[in-house]
Amino acid sequence: MNVLQMGVLLLIAAAGTAMALAYEPKRQVMVSGVLGGLLTIFFLVYQAPDVALSQLVVGAVAYPLMVLLVLARAHGVPERSRLERARASSEAHEEHEA
Q1: What total of structural domains would you count in the chain?
Q2: Alpha-carbon gap, residue 42 to 10, rounded angstroms
Q3: Which residue has the higher pLDDT, 87 or 40?
C-alpha cells in the first residue's frame, strides 16, 4: 500500500467519522457529498474508473442534491395551523351539505 492509498483511506475514515458526528441534516448531506468525492478518488487510486464515475454521479452529486432539495421543500412549506385546517374542514362540510 503506497502513501497515496493510505492518505485517501485516512481521509475517508475522517469524513465517515465527521458524518456520523454531524447532527444537523444539512451538515450530514454536505459531509456525505465530501465523502462521495473522496470515495471517487479512492476508486480512481485503486484503478476502477468505471466505479469512480458512477460514484461521482450518484454519491457526490445526485444523492446530496436530492436530499437538499427534499430538506428545502420540507422546511420551505409551512404546515397549516389547526385553525386553518378546521376552517377548511368546516367549509368542505358545508359545501357537502348544500
Answers
A1: 1
A2: 11
A3: 40
